[in-house]
Design goal:
homodimer, 408 residues, alpha/beta, Nitrilase/N-carbamoyl-D-aminoacid amidohydrolase, 2 domains, eight-stranded mixed β-sheet, five-stranded mixed β-sheet, 28% helix, globular, hydrolase (chains A, B), beta-ureidopropionase activity (chains A, B), C-N_Hydrolase (chains A, B), Beta-ureidopropionase (chains A, B)
């Protein structure tokens, strides 16, 4: 893709803007610098007046990005120096990617193709010294749940399966924690299917797993055909680099889900996703940032890239004619911080690796500054939810007495 | 203010951009139309592909806006037609304003000055046929809580006090529900002080009140010196125009607070606020929109305007030298909708009236579409919060066993 076109936005025949790489590139290419700076202050938060700084990456990482044609961005958040604690700066990475082969290829080839595609991206993360890396939701396969065809279940693996083994080697090699969201087959419970993130430690060991808590039933997201709501609670994984958790995809629409990871002590929550333009793109810059603010932790948001075309046409209601694709997965992976700042987003169209340095001390600094947890009155909400879930719950409604005057 | 400067953004001596009216004006004045349209799609959500439409207002409303120099904007959200329900379109207004007189003027003059300033703005809302109108937090007074001086408590009024009587007349005249956030003095409970919204019905009757649930302790927000956390729960007020609730100011940082109004059935939640640039401006476009999305209701966000200077200097920590003002209240009032769209914002500097038409049917349409309430698993969170509030709560943490190997 011509870079000048992609950055400036190309006007298509119908007058719409296409081919640009990201909202932020569109703005920075089309606004004069001082205007872009002010827009950034409002849109990106700019780390409370401190600019996000570019991270200088080793040439080897940049070479991999050029050779394998993936977007590579690296910016760092800052935090205050403390007297009683040393900074706890960790380097965190997010990978977004399209599938490697058509969905008509043999399944094992499709899977191997994705492994081969990801290898140089993970190598780049390793070369860049990334400490914690998260891949996208169901990264080993096309996001075939739109079809409702059960044959795609063949892509499911046990937690210690092929993809985990592939990543364990790399985790060990690069001393890197890797979060690997896969379609899981639970061999110990009747071979049922889950949407699961496997947490691989920096020594190549499996630390644990988390299963997607909230399952969508909207548009072509026919995931409830394949797996049920997770049974693993809201675990926080204590790694050598910090406390992390995983809010898988649709769980980002649930503030309670974000909250629960926060109450359990998460400092970074990953949100590996697969979501398409028309349905969710305006929500994408809002929900993760809100979660980072409200819960005083960092969020890493990942969305896959590209349009995946399936052999058999399908429908999901919504008045759309039968179709063979899920729409455009718009990428745009990015990080949010507890101080309301965020990074620019990766490309809407290309594979990409987003890297950020973050001092985890910022989490507690913002807990202390804003005091959200201290002022949260959790006991009020524990009571309310306890009442709400009862079948005879009555909402607290105060009616205007004038309303029912005519009927009395 | 020169309009061309305010819309295009003026470069100040220090290179920063000043004097512009709002983010959206800055963008629309500096991007070519098709680029602005795409940026709007991403930033404003554009009502799921449907453009927000300008509302044609009567000349009398426009004349009041010119004569009294306040920003006046009016756009409408759209919703699908249903077969079993008629549209329930209501016209809703938000008023933001600066104070009228210096804070050194006699208190009664200050208060009367604000009444006189608001009168033509409420008249404009009336002329425009607004059904429900919300004023800003503690609208009868300067936001003096930064000072910690108790003399400002003189501005407190009982729920049926002077400001309520003033608005009751107007509510009746214009057949308008008015939400009036004031500093309340509770005459029946030892004359204590609350931060309270009074709900005045369209017949001029008092429907009820709600007291601010969450009180900030951050920066110059020394409100905890003046009043305590509210004791009115999360009431939803059933008016002839729809079910409304009020999340006062700092409560917008608490997703549980937004949730509770939703569980009680709110269709519009107002967030009357007083907040300043440096501290919260990057959060402002995020939190209300997230609440509208997550809870499938409309949100009306209001922030006061201008810089208020107090006679005695004060400090609030944060390393700032003693100062006489709270910083710049940046206005920017706007509406958010359950479909992730939002209106542009009112001015960052001028008084303003924002009007929107909204079909309240959109709330249930989005409940049905996305199913957030149905997939929310409230019982899981009722349990978690019930545990969390116990002193011996232990977070759900899975530690990497390799972590503690050296110490064992």
């Amino acid at each position: 893709m011509d870079k000048s076109i992609s950055e400036n936005g190309e006007t298509a025949a119908d007058g719409s803007i296409r081919g640009y790489d990201s909202l932020h590139q569109l703005l920075s290419a089309n606004l004069k610098p001082e205007l872009y700076q002010e827009v950034s202050r409002l849109l990106l938060g700019s780390n409370c007046g401190r600019s996000l700084e570019q991270i200088v990456l080793p040439d080897s990482a940049k070479a991999l990005s050029s050779k394998h044609d993936f977007d590579l961005q690296a910016v760092s958040f800052s935090a205050d120096k403390e007297q009683m604690r040393k900074p706890r700066v960790v380097r965190v990475g997010l990978i977004q990617n399209s599938i490697a082969l058509p969905t008509t290829a043999p399944f094992s080839d499709q899977k191997r193709g994705i492994f081969e595609k990801l290898k140089p991206m993970i190598d780049a993360a390793g070369a860049a010294g990334v400490n914690i890396l998260c891949l996208q939701e169901a990264w080993t396969m096309p996001f075939a749940f739109c079809t409702r065809e059960k044959k795609w279940c063949e892509f499911a693996e046990p937690v210690n399966g092929e993809s985990t083994k592939f990543l364990q080697e790399l985790a060990k090699k690069y001393n890197m924690v890797i979060v690997s969201p896969i379609l899981e087959r639970d061999m110990d419970h009747g071979e049922v299917i889950w949407n699961t993130a496997v947490i691989i430690g920096n020594n190549g060991n499996i630390i644990g797993k988390h299963r997607k808590n909230h399952i969508p039933r909207v548009g072509d997201f026919n995931e409830s055909t394949y797996y049920m709501e997770g049974d693993t609670g809201h675990p926080v994984f204590e790694t050598v680099f910090g406390k992390i958790a995983v809010n898988i995809c649709y769980g980002r629409h649930h503030p309670l889900n974000w909250l629960a990871f926060g109450l359990n002590g998460a400092e970074i929550v990953f949100n590996p996703s697969a979501t398409v333009g028309e349905l969710s793109e305006p929500m994408w810059p809002v929900e993760a940032r809100n979660a980072a603010i409200a819960n005083s932790y960092f969020v890493g948001s990942i969305n896959r890239v590209g349009t995946e075309v399936f052999p058999n046409a399908f429908t999901s209601g919504d008045g759309k004619p039968q179709h063979n694709d899920f729409g455009h997965f718009y990428g745009s992976s990015y990080f949010s911080a507890p101080d309301a700042s965020c990074t620019p987003s990766l490309s809407r169209c290309r594979d990409g690796l987003m890297i950020s340095d973050m001092d985890l001390n910022l989490c507690r600094q913002y807990k202390d500054k804003w005091g959200f947890r201290m002022t949260a009155r959790y006991e009020v909400y524990a009571d309310l939810l306890g009442e709400y879930i009862k079948p005879d719950f009555k909402p607290q409604v105060v009616s205007d007495p004038m309303l029912h005057k005519n009927s009395s």
